[in-house]
Write a structure and sequence with these properties.
Blueprint lengths: L2 H8 L4 H20 L2 H30 L8 H5 L6 H26 L4 H20 L2 H21 L1 H25 L9
Helix pairs in contact: 2-7
Organism: Eublepharis macularius (Leopard gecko)
Membrane topology: Multi-pass membrane protein
Subcellular location: Endoplasmic reticulum membrane
């Protein structure tokens, strides 16, 4: 799956495919709010097994009645190689390792106050997250994220001009406020790079 197919999925270019992915994701997350992850995995596995066993028996009966020799209905999938190549694992492990190292460096910079303004912004963000955490649990935030992921791109695409206009105004006002605060409080001026 490449970046273009993910964008097509989020912008609902193929409504059936996006509907299946969105519905399945939302169903899984909503199921996890009611049942434990073990139960959800077990129910999904039982449902999948029910469908595949029923289809295999149905095809077997049809083959017996028609006296045909089509073979196993899932033979094409059973013959496919599903092993993950070592090159693929190395490729993605290098990407993950790079992101991990960058995250550790940034957290070190923030916690050891390399730049006072950035560390204060991070502190405010963590303070806001304490309130978010008190209001929502992680699963609720994931449900909201999935719904947002599948709705915000479409809304933005339809109303891009108005949204860009108002975001520009908000961005300008925030920058002006931050500049005023930095000018009034000594020690908060950003370091020149």
């Amino acid at each position: 799956m490449d970046a273009r197919s993910v964008v097509d999925l989020l912008y609902w270019r193929d409504v059936k495919k996006t509907g299946v992915v969105f519905g399945a994701s939302l169903f899984l997350l909503l199921s996890l709010t009611v049942f434990s992850i073990v139960s959800v995995v077990a129910y999904i596995a039982l449902g999948l097994l029910s469908v595949t066993i029923s289809f295999r028996i149905y095809k077997g009966v049809i083959q017996a009645i028609q006296k045909s020799d089509e073979g196993h209905p899932f033979r094409a999938y059973l013959d496919k190689d599903v092993a993950v190549s070592e090159e693929l694992v190395q490729k993605y492990s290098h990407v993950v390792l790079g992101h991990f190292n960058n995250t550790v460096k940034e957290l070190r910079r923030l916690f050891l106050v390399d730049d006072l303004v950035d560390s204060l912004k991070f502190a405010v963000l963590m303070w806001v997250f304490t309130y978010v955490g008190a209001l929502f649990n992680g699963l609720t935030l994931m449900i909201l994220a999935v719904i947002s992921l599948f709705s915000i791109p479409v809304i933005y695409e339809k109303h891009q001009v108005q949204i860009d206009h108002y975001l520009g105004l908000v961005n300008k006002n925030v920058k002006d406020a931050v500049t005023k605060i930095q000018d009034k409080i000594p020690g908060l001026k950003r370091k020149t790079e």
